[in-house]
Amino acid sequence: MRSRLLSRAHCYLFCLWALLASPVRPQHAGHNRRKDHGGGGGGGGGGEGAVDRPKLLLLSFDGFRWDYVDRVPTPNFRALKREGVKVKVVENAYITKTFPNHYSLVTGLYAETHGIVANEMFDPALNRSFSMETDSVYDPRWWEEAVPLWVTNQRAGGRSGAAMWPGSDVKIHGVYPTRYLPYNASVPFAARVAQLVRWFTAPDPEAVDFGVLYWEEPDESGHNLGPESSLMDVVIVDIDEKLGFLCNELKKAGLYERLNLIVTSDHGMTQLSADKIIELDQYVSRELYTWVDKSPVVALLPKDGRLEEVYSALLGVNPHLSVYKKEDIPEHLHYSHNARIMPLLLEAQEGWTIVQNRSGPMMLGNHGYSNTLPSMHPVFLARGPAFRQDYVKETMRSVDLYPLMCHILGLRPLPNNGSLARVQDLLSAGPSPSPPGGYGYAPAVGSVLGALMVLGFLLVFVRQVTLKQLRPLAVRSREMSQPLLQEDLHL
Ligand SMILES: [Zn+2]
Which residue ranges does the record annotate as region Disordered (predicted)? Predict the structure, then answer.
C-alpha cells in the first residue's frame, strides 16, 4: 500500500516538475518537436503535435538592393510591407559576396566563423581551392565549419525543403535537406515555387516546415547593365511580379495566412566605371603571388617569403585601394580569424575595380565592397503569423535573422553572431506561433488539473507519510528526471 502511494507520489511530483519546467523556456520546443516525430514507423501520426507547426519560407532575390523597391512601382513588395514588417537598413556580412552572405543568413555567423569566406577560396590545410563555378562546391569540407539552419531543423525532428539555396545541395555534416533541388540555374522561378508549395502542403508526416528559395536575379542584370541603368527598372518590375506570383501560389494552396515569409537578399550592387581601374601588373610581378579571389576585395597569397615584398609594392599606390595584411584587417569587419582568409587583402573603394590588367571584359555593376556602404545593403521584408503588421524598423544585421528564424521555428539556436533581442520588435506582440507540440489551451487545462491533483495528493500525503519516508522519495524523483534532462542536452 505504501509503495503504491510512493509511486503515485513520483508520478505527481514528476507532473509538477514537468509543469513548472516546460513553459518557461521556449527552447524546449525543439525537445517537444522531436517527440512529435519520435513514433517513426510506429504509425499514430499527427495527434496534437501535428496541428499547426510554424512554417517559414526564406526567399533570397540575389543582389536585390534595399532601395530597388522605391525606384519603380512594386505593388507586391508594398503589400508585403503593409501586411508585415520592413527593415530599412540591413548590414550584411563582409565580404558582400553571394556565398558568404547566403551562408551567414542560415547560420547567423560572420564569414570568418562559418568558413565560406568568399566565392573563390584557398584552404591551406586542405591544399584545395573552392570556386562557386566548379564542383568544389559539393565538397562538404568547405561548409562544415558551421551548421546551416536546415540541418538543425532536421536534427530537431523538423523537415526542410530547399530550392537552389547556395550549399543546400551539399551533404553537410552528413545531411541533405529533407527535400531539395540540385542547383540548376535553368529551372524557372515558377517551377521552384511549385516544388516548394508541394513540399509545404504534403500530407503531414511528409510536409516541410522550413523552406529556402533562391533566385539569381536581379544580380545577373545588375552586373551586366549596372544598377543605375534604366533597363534595370524592367528587371525590378519582373522581380516584383515574381513575388506576386509566389504570394498567389501560397494563397491558392491555403498557405498564405499560415506561413511566415521572409524576403531578403545577400547584398546590393553599385555602378562601376571604366575610369576607375587599378591594374596590379603596374606595381608588382605576378610571379610573386597567387591571385585567389577577385575584385573588389582581392585575396592574394604571396609566394613563400615574398609577403613583405608584395605588400610594400602595393601599399599607397592608389588612394582608392586599401592594402591589408591579414592581421591588420579592421576588427569591425569580422574578417580575419580563418585560415581561408589570405595573408594579403586588397579592398577597392566603392565603384573601383582591381584587375591584373585590362585584358578581361568589364562589368558595369558589382558588389563585394565594405558592408558599411548603403549600396551593398539588401532588401528585407517579412510577413506572416509571427510578424507585426505595417511596421518599419530602422536597422538590423543580417546575422540577426538566424536567431529570429530559430525562434519562429521553435528551435534552439546554435552559437551565433546575431541577437534575437535586436530584432524581437519585428515579432507580433501576441503569442508566437505555437511551437511544435506547443503550449495551446489543452496543455494549459491539463496543467491546471495536474496542479490541483498534486495539491490534493499533498494533503493526503502529509497526513499519511512521515518525514522519514520523504527522503527516499526525493532521491527517486531525481532519478526519474534525469533521462529527460539528458535528452534535452542532446538537442
Ligand atoms: Zn549575390
Answer: 28-48
